Each structure stands twice: as structure tokens, then as C-alpha cells.
């Protein structure tokens, strides 16, 4: 009797300890999550301020200084105090500025692919292929290509990573906006460096003595130098991100999946681009919402499994998603990403 009592005491004590540990971990996760969100919001403000300030610096130090239009007739027509060359340079620069800032807001504010309560596909997948998220409060079905974000406290389909700069996860539904932000921001930074360096060369050529350059420097010139350095740094960092995105698209995997050495069903690189950017190539470089051709039933494979299946011409479940002749086509359509 004493032995059973002592066993129950130890057992209940262990359960209490486990519960306390679990609650402690949940509390720590919530605290980390709040810190990440606060940092993310701060970086959002910093990003927007940097974009707006750099835009003003380029206009005032380069375009308005060297390409100013003094003829009132043309000022009235254009509505901007720049000559023909300045207007063309202005339009080019502003195009990528607005594309970058719109892509940023869309990547930041769009749903990255948060999972809804989907019915587990027990009739389509084997029992060992169906998993439930133990971190979500309702422990809902989690597709194999979904990952639980500790910052957002939600499961995200095809989650690549949680990006603090956009204060949001990068998942299937906002990956296009994230990549476009990187691309347009890099072009924007390149143009900024070219414009400001060219302005510095013109200023040097039009200044009789070198020391007069330093005497005539204002806060705008100092900020311009800072932006040239920052832009060069951002170009380097953006290239690293773009390289990662390219590798993931090429192998049909997310950054999270690459850590686990898991892959999605292999497609051509062009088909992968269509899955992320949409079927219409005309809109690939514009931050518009694509029509997705993906399915929550997609499975993950390791390298050996893929090699064996490809060698034996095995049937992938993904092949049934778009084959209207397939017996399970209609059942698979219920799990199409919209």
C-alpha cells in the first residue's frame, strides 16, 4: 500500500513538474514573441523612414540641383521642377521606390498562409502521414509542409522563415511580395548609389578648390554619404537573401525544410516560379496577388525517397492534384490553396 502511495506521489509530482515546465516554456515563448513583435514594429518604422528620407535626399541633392527646370511653361506642364533628363531619371527612380514600398507593405501585412481548421484528409493520406500541431491551442491538422511559428503563435503553410524586418512570417501567400521587395529594393539601392556618386562627381568638378567642398557640406551631404554606405551594405545582404530564395525555389523547399533536409515534389524551376508568382508571367514583377496552384496535401520527401521514386517512376500524390482523370481529383480539390 505504501509503495503504491509513494508511486502515485512521485507520478503526480512528475506530472506537476511537467505541467510547470510546460507552462514556463509557454510563458517564455510568449515573452520572446512580444519582444520579437516589438522589434519587428520598430524595424518597420525604421525601414519606412529610411526609404522616405533616401527618396528626399536623392531628389534634393541630385535631381533638383543638377536637372532643375527654370522655364515656367514647362514647369506648368510637368508639374515638377525638372528638365527632360531629370524627369526621366525621376520617373525611373520613383518607379522602383513605389514598387519596393508597396511590396514591403504587402509582405508585411498580408496573410503568409496561416492555417485554418481543415478536416484531416484521412481518406487520402495514410495514418502516419497525418500529424496534428501540439503547439496550437486547438491542436488542428498540420499539413506536412506547414510549420508552427513561435512568434506568430500560428501554423503557416510553406513557412520559409519569420522575418523581423517585415514583422511577419514569409510563407507561400506572401513569398512573392517578399522576393519582389528584395529585388526592387536592390535596384533602388543601386540607383541611389549611382545618382549620389554622380552628384558628388559633378559637385567636385564645379568646385574650384577641394577644401571648399568640406566647408560647404550640410547635413544632407552627410546623410547622403551614410546612405551610400548603407545601400552598399543592403545590396550585399539582399543578395544573400535572394540567393537563399533561389536555392529554395530550385529545390522546392523552404528554409525551414532545408534544415531538415526535406524536399517537396520536384518540378522544373519555371513551374516552381509559377507556383509562387502565379500563372500569368506579365504580373510576376508587380506586387499583385497571384492565383495559387498548390495543395495542402503536398508531402515532404528526403533525398533517398525522391531518388528511389524518380528512378522507379513511382506515382506522386501531387500528380493527382491537377489530373482531372484521377479518381481522387475531386477529393484533392477540397484542399487546394486559395
Features:
mainly alpha; 338 residues; two-stranded antiparallel ribbon; elongated
Write up what this structure looks like.
With 338 residues, this protein is mainly alpha-helical. It has one domain. The protein has helices spanning 2-66, 72-78, 84-109, 175-205, 210-215, 219-251, 255-259, 269-277, 303-311, 329-333, and strands spanning 131-132, 141-142, 146-149, 154-157, 161-163, 168-170. Strands 1-2 form a two-stranded antiparallel ribbon. It is elongated and about 80 Å long. The chain starts with a helix and ends in a 5-residue tail after the last helix. Mean pLDDT is 84; it is low at 1-27. Residues 1-19 have a biased composition (Acidic residues). It is a multi-pass membrane protein. One of its GO terms (molecular function) is protein-cysteine S-palmitoyltransferase activity. Keywords: Acyltransferase, Membrane, Transferase, Transmembrane, Transmembrane helix. This is Palmitoyltransferase.
Strand order of the largest sheet: 1-2
Q: Oligomeric state of the chains?
A: single chain
Largest sheet: 2 strands, antiparallel
Supply the helix-strand structural class.
Answer: mainly alpha
Assess the beta-strand content as a share of residues: 5-15%
**Spatial gap, N to C terminus:** 60 Å
Could you tell me the mean pLDDT?
A: 84
- In DSSP terms (H or I, runs of 4 or more residues), the helix count works out at 10
Give the overall silhouette: elongated
Name the helicity range: 55-70%
H/E series: HHHEEEEEEHHHHHHH
Please provide the count of β strands.
6
Number of domains: 1
Radius of gyration: 27 Å
- Stretches where pLDDT falls below 50 for ≥5 residues? 1-27
Amino acid at each position: 500500500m505504501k509503495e503504491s502511495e509513494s508511486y502515485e506521489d512521485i507520478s503526480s509530482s512528475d506530472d506537476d513538474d511537467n505541467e510547470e515546465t510546460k507552462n514556463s516554456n509557454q510563458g517564455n515563448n510568449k515573452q520572446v514573441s512580444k519582444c520579437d513583435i516589438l522589434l519587428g514594429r520598430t524595424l518597420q518604422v525604421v525601414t519606412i523612414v529610411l526609404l522616405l528620407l533616401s527618396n528626399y535626399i536623392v531628389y534634393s541633392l541630385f535631381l533638383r540641383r543638377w536637372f532643375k527646370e527654370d522655364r515656367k511653361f514647362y514647369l506648368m506642364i510637368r508639374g515638377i521642377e525638372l528638365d527632360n533628363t531629370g524627369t526621366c531619371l525621376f520617373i525611373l527612380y520613383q518607379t522602383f521606390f513605389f514598387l519596393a514600398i508597396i511590396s514591403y507593405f504587402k509582405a508585411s501585412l498580408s496573410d503568409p498562409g496561416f492555417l485554418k481548421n481543415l478536416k484531416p484528409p484521412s481518406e487520402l493520406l495514410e495514418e502516419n502521414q497525418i500529424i496534428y500541431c501540439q503547439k496550437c491551442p486547438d491542436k488542428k491538422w498540420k499539413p506536412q509542409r506547414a510549420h508552427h511559428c513561435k512568434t506568430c503563435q500560428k501554423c503557416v503553410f510553406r513557412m520559409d522563415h519569420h522575418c523581423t524586418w517585415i514583422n511577419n512570417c514569409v510563407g507561400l501567400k506572401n513569398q512573392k511580395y517578399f522576393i519582389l521587395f528584395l529585388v526592387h529594393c536592390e535596384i533602388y539601392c543601386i540607383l541611389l548609389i549611382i545618382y549620389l556618386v554622380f552628384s558628388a562627381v559633378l559637385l567636385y568638378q564645379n568646385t574650384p578648390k577641394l577644401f571648399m567642398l568640406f566647408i560647404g557640406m550640410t547635413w544632407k551631404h552627410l546623410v547622403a554619404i551614410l546612405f551610400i554606405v548603407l545601400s552598399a551594405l543592403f545590396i550585399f545582404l539582399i543578395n544573400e537573401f535572394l540567393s537563399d530564395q533561389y536555392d529554395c525555389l530550385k529545390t522546392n523547399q523552404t528554409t525551414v525544410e532545408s534544415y531538415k533536409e526535406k524536399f517537396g515534389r520536384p518540378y522544373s524551376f519555371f513551374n516552381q516560379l509559377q507556383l509562387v508568382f502565379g500563372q500569368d508571367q506579365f504580373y510576376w514583377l508587380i506586387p499583385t496577388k497571384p492565383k495559387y496552384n498548390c495543395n495542402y496535401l503536398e508531402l515532404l520527401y528526403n533525398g533517398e525517397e525522391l531518388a528511389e521514386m524518380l528512378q522507379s517512376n513511382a506515382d506522386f500524390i501531387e500528380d493527382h492534384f491537377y489530373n482531372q482523370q484521377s479518381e481522387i481529383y475531386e477529393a484533392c480539390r477540397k484542399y487546394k490553396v486559395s
